[in-house]
Automatic annotation (TrEMBL):
This is Aldo/keto reductase. PROSITE patterns: ALDOKETO_REDUCTASE_2, ALDOKETO_REDUCTASE_3. Pfam families: Aldo_ket_red. One of its GO terms (molecular function) is oxidoreductase activity, acting on the CH-OH group of donors, NAD or NADP as acceptor. Substrate binds at H116. Residues 31-266 form the NADP-dependent oxidoreductase domain. The record marks K83 as: Lowers pKa of active site Tyr. It comes from Planococcus halotolerans. The active site is at Y54.
Amino acid sequence: MEKSLQDVVQLQGGAEMPWFGLGVFRVKEGPELVNAVKTAIKHGYRSIDTAAIYQNEEATGQGIREGIEEAGISREDLFITSKVWNSDQGYDSTIAAYEASLERLGLDYLDLYLIHWPVEGKYKETWKAMETLYNDGRVKAIGVSNFHVHHLKDLLSEATVKPMVNQIEYHPYLTQKEVQAYCVEQGIQLEAWSPLMAGELLDQPVLKEIGEKYGKSVAQVILRWDLQNGVVTIPKSTNEQRIVENASIFDFELSIEDMDRISALNQDKRVGPDPDNFDF
């Protein structure tokens, strides 16, 4: 099992993705974000996840540059993800969106570029652009986000490069068993967004009880559950104490019984939109 914050999973195509990273969804441009990214890098995080629609790629990029310098590491030590937004989907516009993200981030390449949502009638064309970026060596890995099994099957019917990652809403109230099983079968790495259900699970009684047993917080229990399920996870925080606490999950292991108890909490309950029914 993963022993440290720098442990990686090898994706199809050979890129190495850390099991654990920092998400920056709903963090505004500005010093707080720059500081959060720098803090995460200082404390050993090597994966940062942003997206064009978050409108915070500039501050994320600044935090990356300053964090690299202060930690005495190189760009190659980090794994940076961004995503093409729905209004930019399509072949030429996806290539342009990639360039624009790089420019805002101040980077020469991304480690992972994702299709943010499965926009009907668009995502296959978008995927062709992703394949071009990948085949031209402009990006280390490509993938999707918020894709159900039927979206993946549809994409795979024409794809020449398989998505390497599917980033979905995933937490103890939304275990997405079918999506996970299909991704495992296809060698697509599952990644969790909103792993703590936007904080809604932090008072959950079963999770609190399990946390007490291991001397860990509810957040740590959930994030550990992610890892033991083979799911990459990217909790968001701008608070230094929580950034450190979230990552302190490599010194314990949940029993099979406790893993099952957590999985049994599933209610198919979402905090975000259903990928079959979104209007943006």
